[in-house]
C-alpha cells in the first residue's frame, strides 16, 4: 500500500497545527530566561505594551491562573525562580508574528542570578538513586555476586562510555493554535504525538474537565518523542488566548525548540564484564549516570537492556541521577534502550577482542534461555537467528578480525556488529468502526507522526473486515475520537490496531457499528518477556588523512513479530538506523558551562545525516509469528532501528583503525 495521505502531503493540502485558518488569529512570542539559575526580580512590560499591534504581555507580574499541581515545566509564569537558561518567563501577544516578536524583544527582565551547575559528572556529589526509572522499572537490580564473577573470569573489561546531549529535531517545529469557543470549550491544534494525552494534560494544567478541551493533530511532521508529552508552547497558546480573548498561535523557532521541547540526557556509563575461557559471561555490571532538572525528575532507563540481553550468573544494573540547572530531559527515539545498548554492545565488542572470540559468536554463546533478570520465558526472541542471517548476508565469515590492517589508499576499512532490542508493549485503546455510504469508517484518536500509522490501520481494518483497503477510511488525530495512547514507546500500532481489530469484528457481528475498548492484554495472556530483537552490521571507511568516517554499508536484520506493511516497516527501520548513524558520528549539543543552556541550537551546527551520508543501507526482517502479543502478532518497530546502530559503527571504526573511541559522536578530532 502507498500512504493513504501521501497525495495531500505532497500537494501541500495536509494541514499542520500552525496552518489552520482561524478568524481573528493573533500570535504569542516567548521571552526566555538569560540566566541559568536565580530569580526574576522584575519584568518591565511598559515599552512592549506601547508597541504597534500588541495585545498583552504575560509574565509573573500578573500570573495567569493555573492548576496548583501542574507539571513544573508547564506551570508558566507562576514562579520567580529560574530553573534553566531558555526557560519561558514571559510572552508578548500581538496581531502579527513580527509585532509579537518585536514586543517580546522589548520586554525588560531584571534578575538576581545565582551560581549554576549544568555539568554531569560521575563523581557529582548530588548523584542519587531514583526510586524508579522510566516508565516504571526499579532503578537498581542485582543478582549473583558481580565481584566474585569478575574475580574468577578469564577475561574482563572495565570501560566507560559517554554520550552527549542530543536533540530530537523533527522536521515540523512545535506549534499550537488555541481557540476558546463561545461555550467555554478550548480547541488546541497542536503538533503532538497523542491527542488524548495532550488533551488530558492541557485540561489538568488549566483546571478544566477533560471534556472541555479538544486537541487536533491530524498531521504531524515528526516527533521522535519530543511531542510525546505536552510542551510549554501549547499551554502558552491556551493562556494567551484566554488573556486576550482571541485565538493565539505559538510557533516555536528551531532555536527555541532546543530549549523547551526536551532532549536526550547525556550519559556516563560504566560497564564491567567478565567471561570464562569459553567466552561465557561470569559477570555483567552496567551503571548509568544521567541528569535531570531541578523541576521534574526524569530518570531514563539506560541500563535496563542489560536485564534482557545476555545470560550471566552475576548481573547488576544501576542508575544514578543528578538534578542540575538544566531543562528537563525527555523522550528521544528509544530513550534509555538506545544509549544503553550503545554502551553495552560496545563493551561486548571489547570483550570479544579481549577473549579472542568473534563478536557474533560471543553473543551467541551468551544467549539466555529465559529473560535474565526476571526469569520469564520470551514470547519470542530470535536474536541468534538475526545475528546468523545478518552475518550471512553481510559476508561476515570473510572478516579478518585483526584491527587496523585493511587500507585502500587513504581509507582504513573495518566492519562491526551490535545487537538491538526494544520492549514490545501494548496499552489500552478504544476504537469505533461503522458503515458509512456503503464503505467503512474507523475512528481512533491515534496519531500519524509520519510513520504511516493511518495507512497501517487502514490495512489492519481492511484485513479484519475482508474488504479492499480503499473501502476503509480511518479518522485519527483528534481527541474527540475514541481515546487512544500516544504514538510513542513503539506501542502505537499494537495498541490502536488491537482496538481497531476488536471494533471491526464487532461491526461484522452486528452489521452497523462496532466499538472496542481493549485493556492492553489478551485472553491467552501469561507472564512473558516481550521484546523485539535485531542485529546491526556496519562497514566503515576512515580517512587516515582527515579522520572522517564514512559508513559504506549498514545492514539491520530484525525480529519484530508480524510486519503489518513491508514498505512502511522498511522506512521505519532505515529511518531509525539513519538516526543511529547520526548519533554515532555527528549529533551533539554542547552545554554552555559558563552561561547555562545549550550551544549549537540550529541545524547548521547540530548535524544530522543527509542522504549522501547514507551510502548503502538495508533493513530486513525474519518472519516471526508471535500470537501472544496482540491480534496482529506485531511488535513495535518505531524505535528498534536506532538501537545498536551507533555501537555497530563504533565497533567498525575500531576494527578499521585499531582505535577505540568511547565518547560519542566519533568526530575526526577523536580519531586523529
Ligand atoms: Mo518515542 S521517543 O517513544 O516518541
Automatic annotation (TrEMBL):
SUPFAM superfamilies: CO dehydrogenase molybdoprotein N-domain-like, Molybdenum cofactor-binding domain
Keywords: Molybdenum, Oxidoreductase
Signal peptide interval: none
Domain Aldehyde oxidase/xanthine dehydrogenase a/b hammerhead: 11-115
Gene source species: Nonomuraea polychroma
Record-level Gene Ontology MF annotations: iron ion binding; oxidoreductase activity
Alphabetized Pfam families for the sequence: Ald_Xan_dh_C (PF01315), MoCoBD_1 (PF02738), MoCoBD_2 (PF20256)
Gene3D superfamilies registered for this protein in UniProt: Aldehyde oxidase/xanthine dehydrogenase, a/b hammerhead (3.90.1170.50), Aldehyde oxidase/xanthine dehydrogenase, molybdopterin binding domain (3.30.365.10)
Protein name, UniProt field: Xanthine dehydrogenase molybdenum binding subunit apoprotein
Keyword Oxidoreductase annotated: yes
Amino acid at each position: 500500500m502507498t500512504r493513504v495521505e501521501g497525495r495531500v502531503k505532497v500537494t501541500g493540502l495536509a494541514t499542520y497545527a500552525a496552518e489552520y485558518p482561524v478568524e481573528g488569529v493573533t500570535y504569542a512570542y516567548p521571552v526566555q530566561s538569560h540566566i541559568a539559575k536565580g530569580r526574576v526580580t522584575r519584568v518591565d512590560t511598559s515599552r512592549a505594551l506601547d508597541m504597534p499591534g500588541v495585545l498583552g504581555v504575560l509574565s509573573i507580574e500578573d500570573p495567569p491562573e493555573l492548576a496548583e499541581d501542574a507539571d513544573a515545566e508547564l506551570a508558566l509564569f507562576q514562579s520567580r525562580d529560574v530553573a534553566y537558561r531558555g526557560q519561558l518567563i514571559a510572552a508578548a501577544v500581538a496581531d502579527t508574528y513580527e509585532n509579537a516578536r518585536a514586543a517580546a524583544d522589548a520586554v525588560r527582565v531584571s534578575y538576581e542570578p545565582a551560581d549554576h551547575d549544568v555539568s554531569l559528572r560521575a563523581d557529582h556529589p548530588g548523584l542519587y538513586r531514583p526510586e524508579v526509572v522510566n516508565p516504571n522499572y526499579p532503578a537498581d537490580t542485582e543478582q549473583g555476586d558481580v565481584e566474585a564473577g569478575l574475580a574468577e573470569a578469564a577475561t574482563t573489561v572495565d570501560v566507560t562510555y559517554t554520550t552527549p546531549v542530543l536533540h530530537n529535531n523533527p522536521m515540523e517545529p512545535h506549534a499550537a493554535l488555541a481557540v476558546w469557543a463561545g461555550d467555554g470549550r478550548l480547541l488546541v491544534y497542536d503538533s503532538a504525538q497523542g491527542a488524548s494525552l495532550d488533551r488530558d494534560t492541557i485540561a489538568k494544567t488549566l483546571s478544566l474537565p477533560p471534556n472541555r478541551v479538544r486537541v487536533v493533530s491530524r498531521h504531524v511532521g515528526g516527533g521522535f518523542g519530543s511531542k510525546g508529552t505536552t510542551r510549554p508552547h501549547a499551554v502558552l497558546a491556551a493562556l494567551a488566548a484566554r488573556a486576550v480573548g482571541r485565538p493565539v498561535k505559538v510557533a516555536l523557532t528551531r532555536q527555541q525548540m532546543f530549549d523547551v521541547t526536551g532532549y536526550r540526557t547525556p550519559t556516563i556509563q560504566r560497564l564491567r564484564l567478565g567471561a570464562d575461557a569459553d567466552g561465557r559471561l561470569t559477570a555483567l555490571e552496567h551503571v548509568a549516570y544521567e541528569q535531570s532538572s531541578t523541576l521534574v525528575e526524569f530518570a531514563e532507563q539506560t541500563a535496563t537492556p542489560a536485564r534482557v540481553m545476555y545470560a550471566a550468573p552475576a548481573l547488576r544494573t544501576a542508575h544514578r541521577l543528578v538534578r542540575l540547572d538544566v531543562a528537563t530531559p525527555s523522550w528521544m527515539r528509544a530513550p534509555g534502550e538506545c544509549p544503553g545498548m550503545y554502551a553495552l554492545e560496545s563493551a561486548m565488542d571489547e570483550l570479544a577482542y579481549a577473549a579472542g572470540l568473534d563478536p557474533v559468536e560471543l553473543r551467541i554463546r551468551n544467549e539466555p534461555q529465559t529473560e535474565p533478570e526476571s526469569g520469564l520465558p520470551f514470547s519470542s526472541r530470535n536474536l541468534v537467528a538475526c545475528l546468523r542471517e545478518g552475518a550471512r548476508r553481510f559476508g561476515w565469515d570473510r572478516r579478518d578480525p585483526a584491527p587496523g590492517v585493511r587500507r585502500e589508499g587513504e581509507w582504513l576499512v573495518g566492519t562491526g556488529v551490535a545487537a538491538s532490542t526494544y520492549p514490545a508493549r501494548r496499552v489500552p485503546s478504544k476504537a469505533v468502526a461503522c458503515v458509512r455510504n456503503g464503505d467503512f469508517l474507523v475512528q481512533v484518536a491515534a496519531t500519524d507522526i509520519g510513520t504511516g500509522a493511518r495507512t497501517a490501520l487502514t490495512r489492519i481494518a481492511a484485513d479484519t473486515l475482508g474488504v479492499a483497503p480503499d473501502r476503509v477510511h480511518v479518522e485519527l488525530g483528534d481527541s474527540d475520537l475514541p481515546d487512544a495512547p500516544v504514538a510513542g514507546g513503539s506501542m502505537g500500532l499494537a495498541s490502536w490496531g488491537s482496538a481497531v481489530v476488536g471494533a471491526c469484528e464487532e461491526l461484522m457481528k452486528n452489521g452497523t457499528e462496532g466499538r472496542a475498548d481493549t485493556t492492553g492484554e489478551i485472553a491467552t495472556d501469561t507472564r512473558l518477556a516481550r521484546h523485539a530483537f535485531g542485529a546491526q552490521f556496519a562497514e566503515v571507511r576512515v580517512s587516515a588523512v582527515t579522520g572522517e568516517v564514512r559508513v559504506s554499508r549498514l545492514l539491520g536484520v530484525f525480529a519484530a513479530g508480524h510486519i503489518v506493511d513491508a514498505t512502511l516497516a522498511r522506512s521505519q527501520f532505515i529511518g531509525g538506523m539513519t538516526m543511529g548513524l547520526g548519533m554515532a558520528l555527528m549529533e551533539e549539543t554542547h552545554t554552555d558551562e559558563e552561561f547555562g543552556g545549550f550551544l549549537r541550537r540550529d541545524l547548521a551546527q547540530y548535524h544530522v545525516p543527509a542522504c549522501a551520508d547514507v551510502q548503502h543501507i538495508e533493513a530486513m526482517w525474519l518472519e516471526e509469528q508471535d500470537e501472544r502479543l496482540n491480534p496482529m502478532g506485531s511488535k513495535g518497530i518505531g524505535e528498534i532501528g536506532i538501537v545498536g546502530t551507533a555501537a555497530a559503527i563504533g565497533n567498525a571504526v575500531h576494527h578499521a583503525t585499531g582505535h577505540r573511541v568511547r565518547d560519542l559522536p566519533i568526530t575526526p578530532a577523536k580519531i586523529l
